[in-house]
Amino acid sequence: MHMILPAVVLGTIPLAVIVRMTRSSMLEVLGEDYIRTARAKGVSRMRVIVVHALRNALLPVVTVIGLQVGTMLAGAILTETIFSLAGTRPLAD
User: Rounded distance, CA 67 to CA 50, Å?
Assistant: First the structure.
């Protein structure tokens, strides 16, 4: 129970960036010709979104997630100091 607040602190900002990037990328991909073609062929809406759109929209999202890992590691040291946790803080000393 005592780990919930530090996890929320560490995850909120990266989650917002990832969600915003996913939305932006999905809106861009949903306007592409191959999406229109898949819909014209009669493919179900859910299959078009998951198989065709999301698969192609995840490339920039995965890049952002990779960049966020370093930010979260740096934030973990600060968060552990604030909440007096003994995680990676000895590495910073």
Answer: 24
- Mind listing the pLDDT tens digit for each residue in 20-36? 999 999 999 999 999 99
Tokens 């946790």 belong to residue: 85
Long-range CB contacts (within 8 A, 24+) of 15-23: 17/64, 17/68, 18/61, 18/64, 18/65, 18/68, 21/60, 21/61, 21/64, 22/57, 22/58, 22/61
- What 8-state DSSP symbol labels residue 2? T
Question: Which amino acid is it at 79?
Answer: T
Q: What pLDDT digit, counting tens, does each position of 47-79 carry?
A: 999 999 999 999 999 999 999 988 888 887 777
- The encoded tokens of residue 49 equal 């979104």
Q: Chain centroid to CA 92: how far?
A: 27
pTM, two decimal places: 0.75
Domain boundaries, given as residue ranges, for the chain: 18-84
